[in-house]
Amino acid sequence: MGNNPSKKSTTSTPTTTNKKKNEPTTNTTGNVTTNNTPITTPQNNVAIKPETNQTSVNNVNNKVSISSNNNNNNNNNSNNNISNNNSNNNNNNNNNNNKIEDKGKRIEDFFDKYKDEDDNNVIGPDGITRLCKDLGVEPEDVVVLVLAWHLGAKQMGYFSKAEFTQGLSKLNIDSLQKLQQHLPTFKKDLDNPNNFKDIYRFAFIFAKENENNKILDLESACSMLQLVLADRYPHTEKLQEFLMQQKSYKVLNMDQWLSILEFSKIINANCSNYDENGAWPVILDEYSEWRKQTDPK
Question: Which string of DSSP letters, residue by residue, matches the chain?
Fold first, then answer.
């Protein structure tokens, strides 16, 4: 029997769909996985970054706000410090002003104790005598001359109120006790070469009867020489003797007065180193000649 050509083999072969290895698939959450490893999609990155940036901005804003608050606090503290400093300065100024006023009042009270009965604006000879007695010094003591020099007194035997109060204020003296404690300092002024020369010059002006005079009578000049130079130089005593016995001069001028000081400092007691051709006043030429004659040694 032959085969039926109309019949074909109907054996079915199952079809299988094979997926490529590592081909990505999408799960229900919308994430792509490869071999079960999730991969974040770009959309998720875009969604997350704005939130992160906003957080950063907020943090920056918070820092700026905190910094501003700190600056405000610092400014407030600085303003408070400035205010406190100004207040302290004002208090110090007020205290200083009060001290100055108290000091001025004490000096005026000090002046009033010795002021002249007939003239309330001056301490006269009687008042100066009482002041010297309270200080424990003689009116002829050189420290009284130094005091007058410090006060800028213009007339011997008198201290005006302005001279007394302003002069003592500069010396920071406002009582008899402080003035008494300052007397040793007055004596030290005489050991300072510059101060001594100024005091010596002042003595000539102070001893004049009239401040407008340019000359000093010999008697007053000799008294001042004894007061200021005293035993400081070897010519003092002999100069006084010569001035009082010579007949050519009745007064001294400032140039002669200052030359006597320089002469006393550099010329030997016997005048052996005196140069007659030097620029000395004639009165010293005559003194030098007289000295050689009376004391040839």
Answer: ----TT-----------PPPTT--EE-TTS-EEETTEEE--HHHHHHHHHHHHHHHHHHHHHHHHHHHHHHHHHHHHHHHHHHHHHHHHHHHHHHHHHHHHHHHHHHHHHHHTT--SS-TTEE-HHHHHHHHHHHT--TTSHHHHHHHHHHT--STT-EEHHHHHHHHHHTT--SHHHHHHHHHHHHHHTTSHHHHHHHHHHHHHHHSSSTT-SEEEHHHHHHHHHHHTTTSSTTHHHHHHHHHH-SS-SEEEHHHHHHHHHHHHHS-TT-TT--TTSS--HHHHHHHHHHHHH---
